[in-house]
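Human: I would love a firmer grasp of how sequence relates to backbone shape in proteins. Could you go through the record with me and say what the backbone is doing? Here is the record:
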Amino acid sequence: MAKTIPMIVTNRNILVWDMNDKKFKAFSTSTENPSPNIPFYHEYAEKIAESQHYFKEFMKNLYGKKLTKYILAIIVPDDTSRLESIFINEFFVNSGACKAVAQMPMALALSKDDSKYISISKSLRNVTLEYVKNNETVVKKYYDINDCNSQQIANDINVLHIDIEYNEIPVFVNNFNKDMDDFFELGQVISSKEFMDKISAVDVEKL
């Protein structure tokens, strides 16, 4: 059976779980110079073969040469677009550094114990408010990071979906990027360490 390697696409780099050292290690390239509000990996498309080569070499250093026995479990920001999602999958699956890939947004990884919850997260460009039910996104709302506040989101939580209007549903504030101070009052804060601990145990069977 293929083994799973958890990964996290962050605002600035890619974190890959090292099973030997039991910690995440960062992959980045010298081409990374992200423009405002544009994920860094967009630049990989400009030098895709070179970027894939560097990633494969990075993976060889962690897992040896037999990379095709692994599946990459890729966790992406909650505002990742459909086209970005396709590019991410294609980039890694065609890098020669894995057998296959599976992808999941951060919000779906916040809780294993709650069948319903609200997720609040932030990327380089958006704050994302999301209702998760049975490991699937039911509804999602985006706010420009330069034009939103906690009160606005607090008001929208109660009207995001009919389930929320009539039931008490936990709210999780994803502080993975350590930039959610303004939203701490809205729910249970998930720290960067807590989030990475959850992701380190992700298996493709759960995606």
The chain has five helices and ten strands. Residues 48-63 form the longest helix (16 residues).
